[in-house]
Design goal:
globular; 7-stranded mixed beta sheet; 479 residues; 28% helix; alpha+beta; 11 helices
């Protein structure tokens, strides 16, 4: 590993964290997380407020989340712009149209400027992303980051990131479940270690997280705090105080058994015990988290007994009712949870930073092949050999029939799993040649270019192949 500072970014639907892994030969590593106000106590809230009157007035992060209802009259509040990446959806404010890429660029610029007040060398990072992030979403995220001066060194799945951050603790296990329970989503992965190589056997995710729990707590407790007033009737600043208070209460119940909600301004102080708190949120967690765990185990054809260890990551993993369900299913000995100073909130970003430091090679776990007319497969890029960043040598193909289009079918090595079918214009000559090349970008997407010079030098067909399977070698990390 070379001396230097390496950064990882966990760009989340609800929260975003930045992690530094600094290495100096002979002295080892130094690590730190960066979030709100540059401190490592709270990640950035993934929120943007755009003024309805002043086109240059933007607010970001925790400030927006804590005053989200108060700001709603004068600002357009956007809390889920990550979901707009890779889509044609736009948000209109003051006649200006904002795409997901534009909103992400605005937010990442705020993140960059905040961190750079402390770390002036913050100008590149590896991003962690959901496994099912679309090709368009990856492209939009890459372009948004690089437009504000953050070079994207690569992408790593969130589950692999969590695994990498804890690999020294779990390298003896072969079957690992990662449960990333954040503010907006629950993401699950089952990873398989074979001969020091890590594969993703199954992935599953739903839109459920800590924000849903906060809202349920507020709605259920509000009749006691503001008798006779509905949530919709409550003034904006009081809504904000209520939501912020239930979030604090949720965190406090991770360690304590009693909490008093005191909001003033005509509210009643309310004493809440842990049993009441648990009775409210345990059914939600059971319905969403437990059912999702059962679904991914069914998908991977495993049972709790087959899982060697479970990694818990994400800001909502500190909830006791959540932990109780996980413990009852898998047992305490299997659980890995980084609760020192709430480091579980930074686990995914940390894994991305380590990935950046070691230049972890993500290699193909199966070939990318062309299906030939006789049913055989011809490998363009090969498993175990080719990796992210590789490009094939140009290969020429000819027509076997006098057709006016040529169909290129891309498959895995078996020929049964089809990645894509690409049609290219042809003149119908049997000696007509098509030049083909494939490159795997740092976003883990294979980009195909096919040319037919019979239509001129400028004619080419391009296509993207997503959802390829990769693995990485633990020896890189252990070294």
């Amino acid at each position: 590993m070379k001396n230097g500072s390496y950064y990882g970014i966990d760009f989340g639907t609800t929260n975003t964290s930045v992690y530094l892994y600094n290495y100096e030969q002979g002295k080892g590593s130094r690590e730190a997380g960066y979030g709100t106000d540059g401190k490592d106590l709270t990640p950035f809230s993934s929120c943007i407020a755009i003024s309805k009157k002043d086109k240059k007035d933007f607010k970001f992060g925790r400030e927006v989340k804590e005053k989200i209802n108060e700001y709603a009259d004068d600002y357009h509040i956007i809390t889920s712009f990550k979901s707009l990446l890779g889509t044609d959806q736009e948000i209109v404010v003051n006649g200006d149209r904002y795409t997901g890429q534009m909103l992400t660029a605005l937010f990442l610029n705020h993140v960059k400027e905040t961190v750079r007040h402390i770390r002036s060398d913050f100008n590149e990072a590896v991003f962690s992303i959901p496994v099912d992030f679309s090709a368009g979403a990856r492209t939009d995220l890459l372009e948004a980051a690089e437009s504000v001066g953050i070079e994207v060194k690569g992408f790593v799945s969130e589950s692999s990131s969590a695994y990498i951050s804890k690999v020294k603790d779990i390298k003896a296990f072969s079957k690992v479940m990662v449960i990333d329970f954040g503010g907006g989503t629950l993401d699950l992965s089952i990873l398989n270690l074979k001969h020091n190589q890590v594969f993703e056997d199954a992935v599953y995710g739903i839109k459920f997280g800590g924000d849903d729990i906060d809202r349920e707590l507020a709605l259920r407790l509000m009749p006691k705090i503001y008798p006779g007033v509905s949530f919709e009737e409550l003034e904006s600043h009081r809504k904000d105080k209520l939501m912020n208070e239930v979030e604090r209460m949720k965190i406090e119940f991770s360690e304590y058994d009693d909490y008093t909600i005191t909001l003033g301004e005509g509210s009643r102080p309310v004493d809440i015990d842990y049993d009441t708190f648990s009775d409210i949120i345990t059914p939600l967690i059971t319905e969403n988290v437990l059912n999702s765990i059962l679904k991914i185990m069914e998908k991977a054809n495993v049972s709790p007994e087959n899982i060697d260890t479970v990694i818990l990551a994400g800001g909502s993993s500190g909830l006791r009712p959540f932990a109780d369900i996980i413990l009852s299913l898998f047992g305490e000995d299997k659980i890995i949870f980084d609760d020192e100073n709430s480091k579980y909130q930074w686990m995914v970003a940390k894994g991305a930073a380590i990935t950046s430091a070691i230049d972890c090679d993500f290699r193909l776990s199966d070939d990318i092949c062309i299906l030939l007319s006789d049913g055989e497969t011809y490998p363009i890029l090969k498993k175990d050999i080719n990796k992210v960043g590789d490009k094939s040598e140009p290969i020429s193909f000819s027509l076997t029939t006098d057709s006016y289009d040529a169909h290129f079918i891309f498959t895995d090595s078996t020929g049964k799993n089809r990645y894509a079918t690409i049609s290219v214009n042809a003149k119908g000559y049997l000696d007509e040649k098509f030049d083909l090349s494939v490159e795997i970008g740092k976003d883990q997407i294979a980009r195909v270019i096919i040319k037919n010079n019979y239509f001129g030098n400028d004619y080419k067909v391009q296509h993207e192949i997503n959802k390829l399977r990769f693995y990485y070698d633990l020896k890189d990390i252990e070294d």
